[in-house]
Design goal:
This protein folds into 2 domains: about 5-45 and about 65-265 and about 400-520, Alpha/Beta hydrolase fold, catalytic domain (Rossmann fold); about 270-375, no CATH class. Helices cover about 40% and strands about 15% of the residues. The chain has helices at about 5-10, 15-25, 35-40, 135-140, 190-195, 200-215, 230-250, 275-290, 295-315, 320-335, 340-345, 350-360, 395-410, 425-430, 435-440, 440-450, 470-480, 505-520; strands spanning about 70-80, 80-95, 100-110, 120-125, 145, 160, 170-175, 185, 225-230, 255-260, 365-370, 370-375, 455-460, 490-495. α6 packs across α7 (about 230-250) and α9 (about 295-315) packs antiparallel against α10 (about 320-335).
C-alpha cells in the first residue's frame, strides 16, 4: 500500500511533522534465488571481506521454528451475480545466497480457479515495509475488510466479506509479502538481512525470482502474466518487469501501477522549480471539489490545464511580474476554498502538511496526506506544528492484521504463532535506497515498454492523493515517447486518495479499466 515518507518526504515539506513522517511513514499501503542458484549470481556476496570481523563476532542469525507446509482451502464468493469457486494457497518460497545457503523465506497467498488459459497476476504493496494485505483484502482479492475510508475505525469488527471489485474472475492472483513483512522472514543476521534484502537492487532481484519460482513451481510459465504494485510497489513494478524480461527470461503482458512512487525527481527544488507545486495543487483542488460534491473528470480538466500553463508560468516569473503572482494567488484561493491569508502567505505554494492542518483547523481535525478527506482529531491542536501521526497510516494496521491473521491461520489452516507485519517500521528504518531510489523507475518503465511492443501499462491514481499525486504520473507519461500505440501507457484517475479502491465506485471503475487492458492480450 503505502510508501514510507522517509523514502520520499517532499523537498518542500519543511514542518517538524514532515521530518517525523520521514522517519516512520510511507508505502501505502504495497525474488531472486534461481530456486535458487541464479539469485546467487545476482545477489551481493554475503561473505565478509578478509579484513572484516569474523562471522563469529557478528550477532548470530535468529533461531526460528520452521514455517508450516503449504496449506490449501476451497472457498466460494458471490461476485456480480455469479459464484466463484477457487482454491486459496498459503505457501512459502525459499531464497538462497550464491553458496546455496537458505537466507530467507517468502510467504505468498494465491487464489486460483479451474479454467483453461487463465492468466496470473502477481501483487506487491510498498513501504518499503508493507505486506500485500492492502491489495489483497482491500482492493482485488475475493474477500475484503473495511479500512482506509472516512468513518472506518480500528476497533470495528474485522469481518471479511465477498469483494465485488475482485479481479479473480478474470485472473488468478498471487500476493507476495517481501522479507520482513507479513510472515516472510530473513534467516540471517541483521547485517546480512539489510545487505541481501533491504536495499533497492537486491529487493528487485529476489522478488523477481520469487515470481519466476512460483511460475515454475506451479507449471504456469506459459500463462499470460501480469503485475500489480501499489505505492513503493509501483516503484518495484517497472524494475521487476525489466528484470524478468532481461535477466530471467519471463515477459509480462501487462503492468498496473496503483498510486505509484514512480518519479521522485519531479519533487525536487521547490524554491526554484514549479514542479513540486504543480504536482500537489490539482489533488488539493480535487479534495475541495469532492467536499463540495463537484468532483468529476470534467471539473478537473481545467484545473489540470491551469496547472500546466498559467500557474507554472506565474511561479516561474516570481517577483519579475507581481501582477501575475497576485492573480495566481487569487485563483488558487478560489480553486481550493482556503483562507486567502493562508494562500497569500504561502505565495500560492501549498505545502502538504501545512495544508492538511489548515483545511480542518476550525474543526480541530487533521486531514491525511493519503486522502485529505479522511480525517482524525488533532490531539495537539495548539502546537505550532503537527505532532501526531497520519490519520490513515496507523488506523489501518489493526483491521488488516486481524483479518489476515485470522484468514491465514484459521480459515486456510496455515498454523503459525509468528508475528504478522502488516506495516513494518523496522524494515523501513533499515532500508538503504541509495541513489537508485531517487532515480525512480521511469528509465526502467521506458525500457520495458520499448523491449516489448505488446506490453501494456496502466497507471492509476486517486484524485486526492498527496502522498503520490496523480499529476506526477501525468507529467511523466507526457514526456515519454509514444513507441507505437499511444494507449499502451495510460494514466487513469478516480475519486479517492492513495487507497481510492476503498470507495466502491472507484474500485469498480478500476476493475473495468483493468479488464479492458486484459482484453487486449
Amino acid at each position: 500500500m503505502y510508501r514510507y515518507e522517509m523514502i520520499s518526504s517532499r523537498i518542500h515539506s519543511h514542518s517538524e511533522f514532515a521530518a517525523r513522517l520521514a522517519l516512520i511513514s510511507a508505502l501505502i499501503f504495497s525474488s531472486v534465488g534461481w530456486t535458487s542458484a541464479a539469485w546467487a549470481q545476482e545477489a551481493p556476496d554475503a561473505k565478509p571481506p578478509a579484513s572484516a570481523p569474523s562471522a563469529a563476532a557478528k550477532p548470530p542469525a535468529p533461531k526460528l521454528p520452521p514455517l508450516p507446509a503449504d496449506a490449501h482451502v476451497e472457498q466460494t464468493a458471490e461476485i456480480n451475480g455469479k459464484t466463484l469457486r477457487y482454491t486459496v494457497t498459503v505457501g512459502t518460497i525459499p531464497v538462497y545466497d550464491r553458496d546455496g545457503k537458505k537466507t530467507g523465506e517468502v510467504v505468498y497467498t494465491a487464489y486460483t480457479m479451474e479454467g483453461k488459459d487463465r492468466p496470473v497476476t502477481f501483487a506487491m504493496n510498498g513501504g518499503p515495509g508493507a505486506s500485500s494485505v492492502y491489495l489483497n483484502l482491500g482492493a482485488i482479492g475475493p474477500k475484503r475488510v473495511a479500512f482506509g475510508a472516512e468513518g472506518d475505525s480500528p476497533s470495528d469488527p474485522a469481518t471479511l466479506k465477498d469483494n465485488p471489485g475482485t479481479w479473480l474472475d478474470f485472473t488468478d492472483l498471487v500476493f507476495i509479502d517481501p522479507i520482513g513483512t507479513g510472515f516472510s522472514r530473513s534467516l540471517v543476521s541483521e547485517a546480512e538481512t539489510k545487505k541481501l534484502f533491504y536495499s533497492t537492487a537486491p529487493d528487485i532481484h529476489y522478488l523477481s525470482r520469487i515470481v519466476y519460482d512460483w511460475l515454475v513451481k506451479n507449471g504456469r510459465l506459459n500463462s499470460r502474466k501480469y503485475f500489480v504494485g501499489e505505492s513503493y510497489g509501483g516503484f518495484r513494478g517497472p524494475r521487476v518487469t525489466l528484470y524478468l524480461q532481461t535477466k530471467l527470461g519471463v515477459a509480462l503482458n501487462g503492468v498496473v501501477l496503483v498510486s505509484p512512487y514512480l518519479n521522485p525527481t519531479v519533487e525536487d527544488d521547490g524554491d526554484l522549480s514549479p514542479l513540486p507545486w504543480m504536482m500537489t495543487l490539482p489533488s488539493i483542488v480535487a479534495a475541495h471539489l469532492e467536499r463540495e460534491h463537484k468532483l468529476t473528470a470534467e471539473a478537473m480538466a481545467p484545473v489540470i490545464a491551469y496547472t500546466r500553463t498559467d500557474y507554472a508560468a506565474a511561479l516561474m516569473k516570481g517577483r519579475s511580474d507581481p501582477a501575475a503572482t497576485e492573480q495566481m494567488i487569487q485563483h488558487v484561493t478560489e480553486l481550493t476554498g482556503l483562507d486567502p491569508v493562508f494562500v497569500k502567505r504561502a505565495g500560492g505554494r501549498l505545502e502538504t502538511q501545512a495544508y492538511l492542518r489548515e483545511v480542518y483547523r476550525s474543526e480541530g481535525k487533521l486531514g491525511s496526506r493519503y486522502d485529505p478527506n479522511v480525517t482524525a482529531w488533532d490531539p495537539f491542536p495548539h502546537d505550532p506544528s503537527q505532532r501526531s501521526n497520519d490519520p490513515i497510516l496507523e488506523s489501518i494496521i489493526a483491521p488488516t492484521t486481524t483479518a489476515m491473521v485470522n484468514f491465514v491461520t484459521q480459515t486456510v489452516g496455515w498454523k503459525t504463532d509468528a508475528r504478522y507485519e502488516a506495516l513494518s517500521e523496522d524494515v523501513n528504518r533499515q532500508w538503504d535506497g541509495g541513489d537508485e531510489l531517487r532515480k525512480g523507475s521511469v528509465e526502467q518503465l521506458r525500457e520495458a515498454v520499448a523491449n516489448d511492443a505488446k506490453l501494456h501499462v496502466l497507471i492509476v491514481h486517486g484524485w486526492n492523493d498527496l502522498s503520490c499525486p496523480f499529476m506526477g504520473s501525468v507529467l511523466t507519461v507526457d514526456q515519454m515517447p509514444v513507441m507505437g500505440d499511444p494507449t499502451r501507457v495510460q494514466v487513469k484517475e478516480y475519486p479517492g486518495g492513495h487507497m481510492f479502491y476503498s470507495r466502491p465506485t472507484s474500485q469498480m471503475d478500476l476493475r473495468k479499466d483493468v479488464m479492458a487492458m486484459f482484453g487486449k492480450h
